[in-house]
From TrEMBL:
InterPro entries, per database record: Acyl-CoA_Oxase/DH_mid-dom_sf, AcylCo_DH-like_C, AcylCo_DH/oxidase_C, AcylCoA_DH/ox_N, AcylCoA_DH/ox_N_sf, AcylCoA_DH/oxidase_NM_dom_sf
Entry keyword Mitochondrion: no
Occurrences of domain Acyl-CoA dehydrogenase/oxidase C-terminal (ranges): 256-384
Protein name stated in the entry: Acyl-CoA dehydrogenase
Organism annotation: Streptomyces luteolifulvus
SUPFAM superfamilies: Acyl-CoA dehydrogenase C-terminal domain-like, Acyl-CoA dehydrogenase NM domain-like
Entry superkingdom: Bacteria
Gene3D superfamilies per the UniProt record, alphabetical: Acyl-CoA dehydrogenase/oxidase, N-terminal domain, Butyryl-CoA Dehydrogenase, subunit A, domain 2, Butyryl-CoA Dehydrogenase, subunit A, domain 3
Limits of the Acyl-CoA dehydrogenase/oxidase N-terminal domain: 6-119
Cofactor(s) it depends on: FAD
Family classification: Belongs to the acyl-CoA dehydrogenase family.
Keywords assigned: FAD, Flavoprotein, Oxidoreductase
Amino acid sequence: MDAGFTAEQDEIRRTLRELLGKRCGTAEQVRAAVDSPAGHDPALWDTLAGRLGLPGLALPEAYGGVGCSVTELALAAEETGRFLAPSPLLATAGLAAPLLLALGTPAQRAALLPRIASGGLTAALAVPGAALATALALTGTNGGDWAGGGRAGGVQARKAGDGWRLYGQADQVLDGHSAGLLVVAAHAGGFARSRTLLFLVHGDAEGVVGTRQTALDATRPQARVQLRDVAAELLGDEGGAEVPDGLARVGDGAAALLACEAVGAADRALERTVEYVRQREQFGRAVGSFQAVKHRLADVYVQVQAARSAAYYAAWAAADSERVGGLALAQALEALRHASAEGIQLHGGIGFTWEHEAHLYFKRASGDELLFGPVHRLRAHAAEGAGLFETTEVRM
């Protein structure tokens, strides 16, 4: 394994850092994007998608993509995470597009993936309730009845002639209020043939009501999506046997992207804190000159670098079908929480103010842990998968 970056990968990072530094470099710019109807800056998304081709980085060239691996997309996610740039990148390129590529029919892939790669179509994964981490198999197995189980609640699917109709609700759909395409997980078959299937629904279809919700992390817009007897197209095969494994594979890749995002955010939080303690004076000297402050920041630095190594490995391993994304995500979220918490404390009084950016990084750590964690469950599931706690019978 070559741990160094190629010239192309370095160029991706450099270009994105320069662009996002200009467009999302201040808390005011981030808040302006968050407060827009879409929850992100459409002009910035046009640049990221149309000029830089981020949604198509990990898509094959046959579908209009660049043909790179998850690694390149993860490096891009690290830079968007550094500036907490609100965008549909995770929902579109990290969740929906890989599902279309893995489970879609040739006709579905040919019709939708080129539009996603060009940035002309954004997409979102709609999972019932608060079951996103469960559906992606990050905190446990995803073979249960999280999609509805034949009972009230969740999203239900019924056959209607040659098509399908969906009804139900999904509560935590990333960028669901602005997505042009929804990939909806729904329960079908009742109790006799109970199974979870995935369906394609146009965001502006009759009966679809997407309402943006107030979220802890405003830079990661969420929506409640109601499906009121909506016409839907089945994604892939009606049997649905491959859906749980497909969601788990996509979940591992998404976890690697999220881990790199969190590392970028943690690195930025540490960088801004170091800048501040070098300037702020107390008792006639810079706060950063005190040994206790140096020790605290050194601990953060070590934790961020360890998380970065884990995140990079997870991104590289995702292309080789080695599922370690959840473990890397746990380490990265813990590093971000530590870096942002120390940043708030060492900024003193201004670290607690609404106008300062410090709280935005802490909210990103907490919000991602609510959506994809918590950290202890991510680690417990990884340990269980590795068989770390299996007991061996001892016979006397």
